[in-house]
Each structure stands twice: as structure tokens, then as C-alpha cells.
Design brief:
Length: 219
């Protein structure tokens, strides 16, 4: 083996040692993240999911309603024609105790309706704060919200403008987001699993390179 080959092997050894150290570092970071997730108090007694939709009343329906000699129906269609955003918030009590004093905060005003088992409990107008009231253990309700605001689309999965609070705790609304491509793979398999897979792959490549280097050295 000449000096040129020896220098090449030395450089290759340094590169793979660097990769090995990076793999170990990723492993340490993953362990630290898992430990932090384990010890932090992340449980919220109130689970809150939200969904956002945009809609409009078709002109064909408006024309048919205007043919009906019903002033109230016309006024309702006119009023809802100005409303273009629909939110559905699902709240569930995950504790074994009643949760009272629940309020839903949103960054706009509009009309809301609270339903339980597809039955309307309360309907009213609101201004940024919706009084939800109380939830019994394992109880769940839906809060349906109509608004004419176009500027309040949720920004990301957890938008701090949308939150539910009650004495002793605050929960941010979880807006599930449609994700595709690489990020969808990360979510499906989990960041921790991808780190483990990457570390194992790098360790295998490092071991393979070391074996080749040892064989070349013997020659």
C-alpha cells in the first residue's frame, strides 16, 4: 500500500468517524427528547379539536327562497349569505371529575351553536368569547361557529388565538392539518423512529467501511 492509498484511507476513516459521532449525537438528542416528553406534565383534562371550512349559499338556492312569500326565510338567507366561514370545535372531558367554567376564545365575533348528541343545547351571538359551561366526566359536545371573517384562518396546527380555558388550565385548539410528501412520512412513522432508522443505517455503513479498510490494510 503506497502513501497515496494510505492518505485516502485515513481521510475516509475520518469522514466515517464524523458520521458515527453525528449518529451518536442524534441518538443522545432523541433520548433527551423522549425523557423530556416523559417527565413533562402534558396532560390536559379537556381535549379540544377544531375544523375550519369555507362555504357559500349557491345562487340557485337564494332564487328559490326569494320565490317563497316568507319574510323570515328571506332574512335568514340574506344573513347567512354574508357568513362565509364555519368552525366546528369538539370538546371532551378526559377526567373523572366535572369541569366547569369552560370558555372558548376565538379571534372574531359571530353566531355559535352548542350541540350534544346531535341535539341543540344553546344558540346565540358572541364576541370573541363563547360560554361553553360545564362538562361531566367523559362527556363531549360540539361548538359550531359561523362568522364572516376571512382573516382568522388557523395558522398552523396550534394557533394560540384559539384556546379553551377554565379554572386551573388552558388548552389550545388542535386543528389537524393535511400533510403530504416527506412531512407526511415523518408524521406517519414518527420523528423518533426516523432518527433510530437513520442512526442504524449510518452505523451499518460505518461498520461496512471499517471492514473494507481492514481488508485493504491486510493487502
Amino acid at each position: 500500500m503506497n502513501d497515496k492509498e494510505g492518505n485516502g484511507l485515513t481521510r475516509l476513516r475520518h469522514i466515517w468517524m464524523l458520521i458515527l459521532r453525528i449518529s451518536v449525537l442524534f441518538g443522545i438528542i432523541w433520548i433527551a427528547v423522549q425523557f423530556y416528553d416523559f417527565i413533562k406534565p402534558s396532560f390536559h383534562g379537556l381535549e379540544v379539536d377544531g375544523h375550519y371550512y369555507v362555504y357559500h349559499i349557491p345562487d340557485s338556492i337564494k332564487r328559490e327562497v326569494w320565490k317563497i312569500n316568507d319574510v323570515e326565510a328571506r332574512e335568514n338567507v340574506k344573513r347567512f349569505s354574508e357568513v362565509n366561514s364555519l368552525y366546528v370545535f369538539s370538546l371532551r372531558n378526559q377526567t373523572d371529575k366535572e369541569i366547569s367554567g369552560i370558555n372558548l376564545d376565538v379571534p372574531f365575533e359571530g353566531i355559535f351553536q352548542i350541540t350534544r348528541n346531535e341535539r341543540v343545547i344553546l344558540s346565540s351571538k358572541y364576541d370573541r368569547k363563547i360560554p361553553v359551561g360545564s362538562l361531566q366526566p367523559a362527556d363531549d359536545i360540539n361548538v359550531i361557529v359561523w362568522t364572516d371573517s376571512w382573516t382568522t384562518v388557523p395558522k398552523g396546527r396550534f394557533d394560540k388565538r384559539y384556546r379553551v380555558h377554565y379554572p386551573g388550565d388552558t388548552s389550545y385548539v388542535d386543528f389537524p392539518m393535511e400533510v403530504r410528501g416527506v412531512m407526511a412520512t415523518v408524521i406517519d412513522y414518527g420523528i423518533a423512529n426516523l432518527f433510530i432508522l437513520l442512526s442504524v443505517l449510518l452505523l451499518v455503513l460505518t461498520s461496512f467501511t471499517i471492514i473494507i479498510m481492514l481488508l485493504l490494510r491486510k493487502e
